[in-house]
Amino acid sequence: MNVVSCKNIFNYIDKRVPERTFADRHTGIQADIALPWRIYDNKALCFVQPALRNGATSARANFQELGGAAYTLLQECVVKRGVGGVAAQIGGDNNLYVAIAKYQPRVRCDANPVPAPPWRSCHHIWGDMQSGQERQIFGSGSDPTIQVELPFILKAIDARCEATVDTAGKPTIGTWYQIWEATVAIASICMRAKDRGGRASGLGVNQEIVIEMYDAAPDLAGSMVNQTVDNSSSANPDLGQPLASATNANSSILNTWGESDIQIFSMEAISDYVVGEPLELSSNLEQGDSILVTLPGDIFTNSSQDASA
Engineering a disulfide at 109: which of 164, 190, 277, 291 sits with its beta carbon 3.0 to 4.6 angstroms away? Predict the structure, then answer.
């Protein structure tokens, strides 16, 4: 676990955000924040991710609760043990849990000085794109086994941000979840930190799926269409933006947080976990307690989960 990267995430968690509803995307359940949803720092070596308690269809929590849980995991799991962790029973209905874990980005930012599309525009892509963990065959050509024809283009509703999913080789098995993870990483590393477009590679079983994000219509900058905000699952487009006084490893922001009196579960003993399957974690902090969770991560690379196991 990269401790500095995990600490820097708190530059992007605004504790003033009031209670929000959380629900899995594309289920027909109205929510302020569509899951999966994730916060990286500018290096994307660590992330904080809320998820629903197994069996729950929605959850309610404010960002003081979400961030407090993440800060407790930072101190008790990342700093003290060097592993990720999960905090349970978060929010007004105890239906949210919060995970902290590492990620291994394969992202390269554009050298071209052309500015990136706006964060708000790209948020409409990763906030509403497919993100399932079902194995699918991605590829191009006449192969009848292909399930997702490439290139596949994702477009924001304001016509600015676009993301092209393509392959560098033969058809390969992959998941939309892994592509979603990489999309948020590109936005965090390149767009938010450097005002550049970017590209993620090495996705899928054969590591041949690539995704590139760019400004498809820079001439629309400042136009009314760029101000469009919908009420769909990609709402709350400013979440994840840096706080006004944020700098890397800003101790003044980090010091405004304190540990919460919550139950947490470190991931020291996890092995052979099948991502997407329910897992019972037993607390090594208080005897006798356990929680049933489904950990975030990709089913093939385990790019998220491995860091915490």
Answer: 190
Asked if residue 232 is part of any domain, the answer here is no
The amino acid occupying position 162 is E
Alpha carbon distance 159, 215 (integer Å): 9
Residue 29 included in any domain: yes
The residue from 165, 199, 227 where one domain ends is 227
In this prediction the pTM is 0.84
Structural domains of the chain, count: 2
Render pLDDT for 112-157 as a digit per residue (tens, 0 to 9).
877 888 888 999 899 999 999 899 999 998 899 999 999 999 999 9
The range of the structural domain enclosing residue 214 comes to 107-227
Is 233 within a domain?
no
Q: What's the pLDDT tens digit per position in 239-294?
A: 777 765 444 545 567 888 888 877 777 666 454 445 455 555 555 444 445 555 56
Q: Is 286 a member of any domain?
A: yes
| Angular region, 66: left φ>0, alpha ψ -120 to 50, beta rest | alpha
Per-residue burial over 264-284, b if 16 or more Cβ lie within 10 Å, else e, is bbbbeebeebebbeebebebe
Task: Let me know: does 9 contact 47? Beta carbons within 8 Å.
Answer: yes
